[in-house]
Amino acid sequence: MDDWNALAVRFRRDLHQIPELAFSEVKTQAYLKDALAQMGIAARPMAGTGLVAEIVGKLGRGRAVALRADMDGLPVSEDTGLDFSSQHAGVMHACGHDGHMAMLLAAAAELNQHREFSGTVRLVFQPSEERLPGGAVKMIAEGVLEGIDEIYGVHLWSTQPVGTVEVGAGPQMAAADEFRIIIHGRGGHGSEPEATQDAVVIAALTVVNLQTIVSRRVPAQAAVVVSCGTIAAGGTFNVIAERAEITGTVRTYDAAIQSQVESAIGHIAHTTAELWGASAEVTYHRGVPAVVNHPVSVERWLNALASAVVIKPAVPKLGAEDFAYYLQQIPGAFMFIGAEPDDAVAYPQHSAHLNINEEALAVGRKALVAAALASLGASKDSDASHPID
Ligand SMILES: [Zn+2]
Ligand SMILES: [Zn+2]
User: Fold this and answer.
1) In terms of CB atoms within 10 Å, which end of the chain has fewer, N or C?
2) Rounded distance from Cα 326 to ligand 2 centre (Å)
3) How does DSSP assign 117-161, residue by residue?
4) In the beta sheet, which residues pair with residue 186?
5) Cα of 386 from ligand 2 centre, angstroms
6) What domains are defined for the chain?
7) What is the tens place of the pLDDT at every residue in 339-384?
8) What is residue 364's three-state secondary structure?
9) What is the mean pLDDT of residues 253-274?
């Protein structure tokens, strides 16, 4: 383990103990600011609890690249038994964002030591990745991408072997939308269903009919998820419910498919209710868009990393990430860093038992440094022409 690795582990363990929820990352911001100050890097706050800093290369002016880490923890009570467990009751770095910040800090230390590059590396510590609307939107509104040519980010992945990375061009994570269906029926006595429009039965049929969107309404090649997360109706066993409410989420990679699913949900909800003389009220909220990697950035990154890590073909995930908003503005790419424990059960992201393999921190740091140097080394017009080789 070289110095950068030890540094990353220390940062990660310190940050792991002080997880904070979205837009409340006060201690975290102070920790990062202090760690950067000790490297001689001045940082300024952005988006409230976010932080931005720059490392200017000593070889002159050039391109500008941004490296992003997210900062927030989750409302989860840690149950890992680690001796550096969360000291904040009910809050945990259960998505590995402690590791993301640690890797970016260690990458900053490495890049800042000799600054043997031209151009600028902007370090972006973003609050609130987990809660909508995510911190990325606020950071962009406050100018985080101004003057930036390209942006890169990584996510630790606890069920992917350590020493491997996953990256590919195109969609990597899904658009995550939310829908709500309220069924207005007619309540009545449980013994006289013929005089009612039973909101419970209509809701149940609606949930079943919604399953046909994936199986019968979109092409089999399109990866789509329609999940009903809640269903609520009725107050007691012998009264037929007048009203039922269903909420759910939709995951898609493609904007046209997304629109198709949105209209299918409305159509199914309305027609199912009408079939029984009732009515439905449907609201559909588009959330974080899909994370779509730019091919030139991916190729640049793969070339820079080729001999350093095992590169696996990307398997797009149906989770969401607000890194998507940056990629809607400028070119860039998002990579998954394998962080599976060597000798323990690999719990998934957001689990109270999540424990990432700290060897992954070195892989992530190298990936960030490689992305920055490759991007800065690219000619000014390379994005407009052909990928570098
Ligand atoms: Zn998460
Ligand atoms: Zn995350």
Assistant:
1) C
2) 15
3) SSSEEEEEEES-SSSSSPHHHHHHHTTTTTT-SEEEEEEEETTS-
4) 197
5) 32
6) 3-172+290-377 (3.40.630.10), 175-285 (3.30.70.360)
7) 999 988 899 999 999 999 999 999 999 999 999 999 999 765 555 4
8) helix
9) 97
